[in-house]
Design goal:
heterodimer, A: mainly beta, SH3 type barrels, 5-stranded antiparallel β-sheet, globular, B: 211 residues, mainly alpha, Nitrile Hydratase, Chain A, two-stranded parallel sheet, two-stranded parallel ribbon
Chain lengths: 93, 211
């Protein structure tokens, strides 16, 4: 486990051919680790018949909605949370 | 069936003979997997039986117990999977189930933008709108607009947290206990806790007036 709750992280802004679980709308955005989940098999290889190993640490990462959507119509305190695998995150501190 | 008159064109309304393309594809895949020995028809039947046997009543039991038992509430928020097992409920195959608490200051709602991830073991099959593209896209970009359409009035000072369940974790919202429910039994409380309130797009039902 590389990241810890409270740490600022940036979602890697790379494109990815094939199945992956990082929605495009958070790629390149900076958020805060909310909690560290256990590790899970990697859906990017498991989706194609592989065993998904090695397992990848998973994190719940929270973002300010206004950082994700420049024209966000709600309140400034609103947040959005996603589960993101470690290999999609980089340190932003 | 009688002829009906109208002025808009549409595809012929079938009587169920024609199979939609997605269903035909699923059927062909199922057949292939069975022929290759990857799964059996019995596996498919058991899985469907399990899924349709689940209902929001199980999630409601969890929340109702948490409303009346502060110790249980702490255990539910710390580890919802263990809390479900404690009540003899089946938390499903997901290794981690997370319960999040709605309060006066914070409101949670759940979406799966990538597909239809949902705590099926505790809430049953997801409603059709949960799987629809409009909900999945607007719940993340305009969640207050979506809540407004569901009839949820959220104060400007309430922090709205949207959970996009993108991976292996399943999220269950623990709604706020309505005012005026102090004298209601745990079973009576469970009846107020609707499926939609555990997705976070509704408040629990109001208690029936006594008398």
């Amino acid at each position: 486990m590389t990241y810890h709750p409270g740490q600022r992280v940036r979602v890697v802004a790379r494109s990815h051919e094939g199945h992956h679980r990082t929605p495009g709308y958070v790629k390149g955005k900076t958020g805060t680790v909310e909690r560290a989940h256990p590790s899970f098999t990697n859906p990017e290889t498991r989706a194609y018949g592989a065993d998904g190993l090695p397992q990848q640490p998973l994190y719940l990462v929270g973002f300010a909605q206004r950082d994700v959507w420049p024209d966000y119509p709600g309140q400034s305190g609103d947040r959005i949370y996603l589960d993101l695998f470690e290999h999609w995150l980089e340190d932003a501190e | 069936m009688s002829e009906h008159e109208h002025d808009h064109p549409h595809e012929p309304i079938g009587d169920g003979d024609g199979e939609p393309p997605a269903a035909a594809r699923a059927r062909a895949l199922e057949q292939l997997l069975i022929e290759k020995g990857a799964i059996s028809r019995e596996d498919v039947r058991e899985r469907i039986d399990w899924l349709v046997s689940r209902s929001p009543a199980d999630g409601a039991r969890l929340v109702a117990r948490a409303w009346v038992d502060p110790g249980f509430k702490q255990r539910l928020l710390a580890d919802a999977r263990s809390a479900a097992l404690e009540l003899g409920l089946d938390p499903g195959p997901s290794p981690v189930v997370v319960a999040v608490e709605n309060t006066e200051d914070v409101h949670h709602m759940v979406v799966c933008t990538l597909c239809s991830c949902y705590p099926r073991a505790l809430l049953g099959p997801p409603p059709a709108w949960y799987k629809s593209l409009p909900y999945r896209s607007r719940a993340v970009s305009d969640p207050r607009g979506v809540l407004d359409e569901f009839g949820v009035e959220l104060g400007d000072d309430v922090e709205l947290r949207v959970l996009d369940s993108t991976a292996d974790i399943r999220y269950l919202v623990m709604p706020r206990r309505p005012a005026g429910t102090e004298g209601i039994s745990e079973e009576g409380l469970a009846a107020l806790i609707t499926r939609d309130s555990m997705i976070g797009v509704a408040q629990p039902a109001a208690p029936a007036p006594i008398g």
